[in-house]
Design brief:
By secondary structure, the chain is mainly α. It contains 7 helices and no strands. The protein has one domain. Helix 5 runs antiparallel to helix 6 and helix 6 runs antiparallel to helix 7. It is elongated, with a radius of gyration of 16 Å. It starts with a helix and ends with a helix.
Length: 178
Amino acid sequence: MMSVFAKHWWLLALRGGVAVLFAVVAFSLSYSPFAALAVCLALYLLSDGVLAAYSGWRLRHEEYAGWLLFFEGLIGIVLAAAIWAARMNDNRLVYLFASWCILTGLLELWLAYYVRKAIESEWQLVMAGIISIGLGIVMTFRANSGTIGLAWYAGFYALFFGMLLIGVGLRVRRWLVQ
């Protein structure tokens, strides 16, 4: 399993890079109109979803790992389409992003459990899952935080999530080199 996973290490790192880039944009949009943040969030969910689905498709023969990533990607793509198609207010977008964080976090924890014997850096996947779930729960209870709160929540989430995914990608790459 690890040989296939390691060949596509760059997809994990790219997902992390996209997340860090989104964090920078989200922080800069915190005082911008809500529509700009909603479009940015939809683009992030779409790009992360496409990368995760592609990773999952490439790993589909690896028992559960590929299908977990593929399912995670589909969730992101569907939620991006929902943001794009629906006219959302602040609260609905916060709840939508919070539900995505919780679902993504649960899938990351499941993936970490599945690959724990194959890679040494599963703790980074566990941390990514915990951060996702924790932020989703916080956002659920603080849904009235408005555009600025959503931008900061999403920015901090993407920054930490992105750094952890870059770390996992680089550690998996080291496994390929050895």
